[in-house]
Design goal:
- The complex is a heterotrimer of chains A (112), B (402) and C (311).
- By secondary structure, chain A is α+β, with helices and mostly antiparallel strands.
- Helices cover 21% and strands 17% of the residues of chain A.
- Chain A has three helices and four strands.
- In chain A, the strands form two sheets. Chain A has a two-stranded antiparallel sheet with strand order 1-4. In chain A, strands 2-3 form a two-stranded antiparallel sheet.
- Chain B starts with a helix and ends with a strand.
- In chain B, α2 (16-27) packs across α3 (41-52), α4 packs parallel to α6 (96-104) and α8 crosses α10 (226-255).
- In chain C, strands 2-1-3-4-8-7-9-10 form an eight-stranded mixed β-sheet, with helices on both faces. A two-stranded antiparallel ribbon of chain C has the order 5-6.
- In chain C, β7, α8 and β8 form a beta-alpha-beta unit.
- Chain C is globular, with a radius of gyration of 19 Å.
- Classes of the chains: A alpha+beta (112), B alpha/beta (402), C alpha/beta (311).
- Chains in contact: A-B, A-C, B-C.
- Chains B and C meet through β3, α4, α6 and β9 of B and β1, β2, α4 and α6 of C.
- β9 (215-216) of chain B pairs parallel with β2 of chain C, so a sheet runs across the interface.
- The complex binds iron/sulfur cluster (2 copies).
- One iron/sulfur cluster binds next to α2 of chain A.
- The site of one iron/sulfur cluster (SF4) has 13 residues of chain A, from α1.
Chain lengths: 112, 402, 311
Amino acid sequence: MNWDIKDIKDWDWRKHPRGGLIRDAGNAKKFKTGGWRSARPLWDEEKCVQCLICHIFCPDCSIKTKDEKMTGIDYDFCKGCGICAYECPHDAITMIDEAEARKKEEAEEGRA
Amino acid sequence: MAVNFKDINKTVALVGTDAVAEAMRQIDPDVVAAYPITPQTAIVETFAQMVADGKVNTNYVPVESEHSAMSAAIGASSAGARVMTATASQGLALMWELLYIASGLRLPIVMPNVNRALSAPINIHCDHGDSMGARDTGWIQLFSENAQEAYDNTLQAMRIAEHKDILLPVMVLLDGFIISHAIDRLDLVDDDVAKKFVGQYKPEDYMLNASQPLCVGAFDGLYGYFFEFKRQQEEAMRNSVKVIQDVGKEYGAVSGRPYDLFESVGLEDAEYVLIALGSAAGTVRSEVECLREQGLPIGMIKLRVFRPFPAKELAAALAGKKAVAVMDRSDTFAGGMGGPVFIELRSALYEEEKRPLLVNYVYGLGGRDLPVQLVNQAATELGEIAKSGQVKQMVNYLGLKE
Amino acid sequence: MGTSLKELSKKPEILTGGHRMCAGCGAPIAVRQVLMGAPDGVQLVVANPTGCLEVSTTIYPYTSWNSSYIHCAFENAASTLSGAEAAYQSLKKQGKIKDDYRFVAFGGDGGTYDIGFQALSGALERGHRMVYVCYNNEAYMNTGIQRSGATGLGTWTTTSPHGTESFGKTQNRKDMTAIAAAHNIPYVAQASISHWRDLVKKAQKAFAADGPAFINVLAPCHRGWRYPMEQTVELAKLAVQTCIWPLYEVDNGKWNLTTKVSKKKPVEDYLKIQGRYAHLFKGEKHGEVLKRIQENTDKEWEKLLQICGAE
Ligand code: SF4
Ligand code: SF4
């Protein structure tokens, strides 16, 4: 089910599901933890050999894959722990400062 | 169409624990998780034999403690099963935190508790200290006077618990040894009638529903909605008053034994009233009837439902009475406030313009006998209070060596 | 069921992103790898005792679990899940439900070694078909790094602090994996998040077992162990390479060493990068404890080799 919890803070006590049940399995996907990052992993597709080591070790399910291939990093959830960068056997992931990365992004967005 | 209850009921002689086990057999819960403890043990022994003999479909989980009994009951109930367990005394105390979790998660678990004193010193006999201690855990509590009521209450408890407006766990209380181990004559309803009365359990939310996986027991976070959930729970408890009455009536229609929140003797003309619950109600009733025959304006109330506490209904029933004595088979150690039933009743009468005088008799702790002479003593004192308009001592210990 | 990373990358994630475990935490890595070992086409019921994983994955109104889930209390994940499993067996037998389910609990070492020990032992003895996974970070981390039965000798925690009169925890950890094995259940294993293939295979066997299975997974916690967070997997690897955390299984009573360690590294290699052992490296007084840790490790390793019939 797709549970609408937009205004949950204002709900009358009667509106909450009985006993705090959650009927919307996996709805934490709507809760983005990417904002926690102070460092950002950058993936270099050129260097990547598609070994998928990063995927098996990411604590936040943030290595995106498709058809048995790594396709990028999910910045919605990645908390910037650096495990992927540390474990990548081919130095295909590097950590950069998140604040600077954001600044750069914003500047680019401004230009666009 | 007139019902011939003789055809529906079968008269048997059973000890209280077997009477409860019979109700459990008729309910045929999907899961029973239980641990033995005196004086409850015979319930799970009898039931385990029923499982062994294929008389029920129940998956019986012989856990390693009462803590795990209630934990497994919570897991099974959340999964979507109809679940029962049974306990007593220390076992109930060991379940403590889980009693709150069962009610907080709104799980319709039914649990007979055979009332027994709590340690220390260790004592295996009847008093109500165990379940009275659990009075604020969010469970509905039904007291039984004898094996018949323990049986009837167990069948009704399932209906009450599973009612969609309630979904709360229910404790069925029966006095240790006095009811649990004494052979009593009682009527069992026919299996078909019992099964039809209890009905099929169709949970709304359950973990084993592949089309809608369920998260049970989420963390309420740091600034969550705990308050709202507790208010919902209280609402369910309030709603349960009517449901308990309706189910009691319906049970009366199929068994010939209707039930209400409490029952009474002689309230229409009594000037003073004794209130008791559990097996003592039988002794009190016989004494009250005897005194009424002698022309005394005495009456009695046997409280069946302690949670929810029928405050309004009791206040109405006691309107205009001169004096009321509450018999409590446990103490609260509140430093002179009296037993739990007394405290609740006193509070329930506070709003009344003309309140009766109130006196409390704590009796029977650790299984101390309640002979009819003691009831007579309380009744006599109550009569004097009604006449004099004065309560000399609010809390009294009946049968204490002093 | 394969265990290549390519195949595993296609498994649906049962634990979703959006959970609120610390960055770099070992526990969700353990969970992900274990669940990659769950068979396809079955439904899951997951249980947690109270702990980091529980409070971070089910903050109402959000759940990170793409499956059914239950949290009851701290000491009873095993008994709670055993009830759910009993319900399943009953309802299935009565034809009231059709789907196939598996049951898996993830408990921290506090909820497993200590407060949840009795409930776990009872559930293992009763033979429920469920997988119990201990994500072991060797202390009570949810309440802020207190010692547990899984905490090793000499370890600093907030309730086994070092000082002039103390070198940290004065006792050895208990051998929970061997204790689980002593229940003679179908499958028991000790694993580490660093050795992912080993762990996934063990999870596959655990889910396939016709009865209870227990897996004790080392899942480092950088907050409690005091090392840089990107080295969580590295720490888990070093624990295996120093033989402080050997990898083995007890498959229907047969003990197998699943990861051979030919060149055993000294335990100091593992201990010195962790702040919780920093006091052991400052001067003579506590330094002698390092020797004891090495001796214990050697002794336990030799014992294990013997039981497994390995060299
Ligand atoms: S670990 Fe490195 S090389 Fe391997 S898939 Fe990830 S980014 Fe590519
Ligand atoms: S930095 Fe950490 S959270 Fe982000 S993708 Fe890498 S391993 Fe995952």
